[in-house]
Recover the amino acids of this structure.
């Protein structure tokens, strides 16, 4: 089965072969994968998916790679993370049916990036690349370096010399080539764009981006399957580039078009941090374009001030009747604590953004009590412990004696409890 | 001859200025606008600059000095 028809320009519709290209030569619009749904429909079914691997690769028929056998996949364990029925958090917020899609335990690097990177590297190898690269300050570098190590591929990670180097240096455990560029974020951005154009490398979020981004659809597929083959009424999605939001919408639409779910009326809601909210601000001001910003937020994994898919995210939310909102750094920390203390899930700062905005949307009445709601938690809290270290209190200190223990906790004869 | 693609964004006070024309005259680059959306209060263009690499870089600096935002065509890719 040839499931990929072409790469197609999202703006002018011009089609290209499924190679390592990402920009339309005619109008410079972004390219995305176009599938042959008639062919896919012949082979895909709920039964086949349910009999597939316990990973996102059970949806291999809808992913942009040619082979999905276990030996050709890089990152075969990514995805199919728990869908947690969040009864405690739901009760706290006043929602009857709230779920947390828990990508804090995604394999191997504990963030949703493992989904997109698994697809990107699998496709990169199919296209003949043996060197992969990315520009990153965190989760993406982590995932690319780990997958490249497991696949024995050469790996380059570009980081700005003035930004959070220590965080990325943890990736050295995987032995990538970490290139610290003597410059700011914008300099790295431009340099990587130029390198991707000049050298024959697979830059996962540049020339492999049409394939890479498709990995996010698996969050939508898993949502539908794990809810018992039904689509939720509301989803809340954190936004950085905006790509995740647009691909969850695309995934839901594909499920409907292929007859895998009866009805999709999901409202797609976007969440950003106040310190970097170009997309949510445009939504609130009723604009169909966003203004770039200089990020200043603790939610570093969402700190994209000039988001590539911002326009498309605005469109996706508007088309589904969804909403967007943003939260302050304090509300982000509160959101992290609330999720941890009600559901036992420790999320990174992006998760605090999602929970904070979920809370706002419920309060505003945008999300209603009876709505089946899914919140996407995209990364593990162990990655951003510095964000909460001053907000979680201190241990109770006692002397090494039973008397001290009982007095402190008012138990037994010494505590008279 | 090298070509590089950029997304440039105009703030409100620069929308009426013929900046692309000026850049083509002040630097040895050929400007080729492929897609654009210019409104009363804002505007953007996807443009290709062709010339020697060093001259393209000078032209990009020149654009920035004129008060417009210049990004690679991919916008932010550091994730």
């Amino acid at each position: 089965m040839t499931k990929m028809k072409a790469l197609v320009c999202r703006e002018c519709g011009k089609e290209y072969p499924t190679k390592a290209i990402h920009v339309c030569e005619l109008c410079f619009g972004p390219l995305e994968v176009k599938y042959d749904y008639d062919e896919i429909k012949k082979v895909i079914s709920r039964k086949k998916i349910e009999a597939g691997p316990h990973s996102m690769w059970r949806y291999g028929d809808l992913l942009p790679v040619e082979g999905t056998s276990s030996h050709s996949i890089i990152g075969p364990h990514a995805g199919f993370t728990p869908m947690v029925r969040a009864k405690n958090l739901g009760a706290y917020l006043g929602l009857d049916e709230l779920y947390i899609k828990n990508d804090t335990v995604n394999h191997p690097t504990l963030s949703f990036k493992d989904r997109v990177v698994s697809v990107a590297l699998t496709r990169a190898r199919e296209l003949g690349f043996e060197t992969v690269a990315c520009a990153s300050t965190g989760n993406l570098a982590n995932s690319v370096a780990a997958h490249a190590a497991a696949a024995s591929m050469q790996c380059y990670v570009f980081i700005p010399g003035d930004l959070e180097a220590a965080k990325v240096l943890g990736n050295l455990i995987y032995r990538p080539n970490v290139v610290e560029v003597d410059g700011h974020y914008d300099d790295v951005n431009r340099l990587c764009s130029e390198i991707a154009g000049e050298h024959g490398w697979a830059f996962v979020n540049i020339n492999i981006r049409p394939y890479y981004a498709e990995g996010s659809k698996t969050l939508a597929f898993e949502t539908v399957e794990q809810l018992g083959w039904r689509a939720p009424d509301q989803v809340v999605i954190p936004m950085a580039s905006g790509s995740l939001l647009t691909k969850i919408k695309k995934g839901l639409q594909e499920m409907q078009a292929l007859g895998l779910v009866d009805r999709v009326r999901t409202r797609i809601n976007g969440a950003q941090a106040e310190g970097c909210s170009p997309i949510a601000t445009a939504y609130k001001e009723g604009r169909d374009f966003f203004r770039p910003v200089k990020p200043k937020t603790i939610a570093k994994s969402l700190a994209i001030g000039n988001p590539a898919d911002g326009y498309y995210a605005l469109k996706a939310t508007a088309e589904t009747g969804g909403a967007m909102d943003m939260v302050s750094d304090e509300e982000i920390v509160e959101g992290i604590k609330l999720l941890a203390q009600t559901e036992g899930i420790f999320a990174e700062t992006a998760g605090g953004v999602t929970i904070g905005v979920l809370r706002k949307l419920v309060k505003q009445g945008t999300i209603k009590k009876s709505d089946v709601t899914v919140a996407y938690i995209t990364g593990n809290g162990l990655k951003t412990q510095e964000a909460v270290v001053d907000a979680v209190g201190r241990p109770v200190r006692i002397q090494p004696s039973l008397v001290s223990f009982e007095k402190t906790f008012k138990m037994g004869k010494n505590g008279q409890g | 001859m090298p070509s590089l693609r950029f997304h440039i964004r105009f703030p409100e006070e620069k929308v009426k200025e013929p900046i692309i024309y000026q850049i083509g005259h002040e630097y040895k680059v050929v400007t080729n606008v492929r897609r654009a959306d210019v409104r009363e209060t804002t505007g953007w263009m996807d443009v290709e600059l062709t010339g020697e690499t060093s001259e393209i870089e000078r032209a990009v600096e020149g654009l920035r000095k004129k008060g417009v935002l210049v990004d690679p065509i991919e916008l932010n890719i550091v994730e």
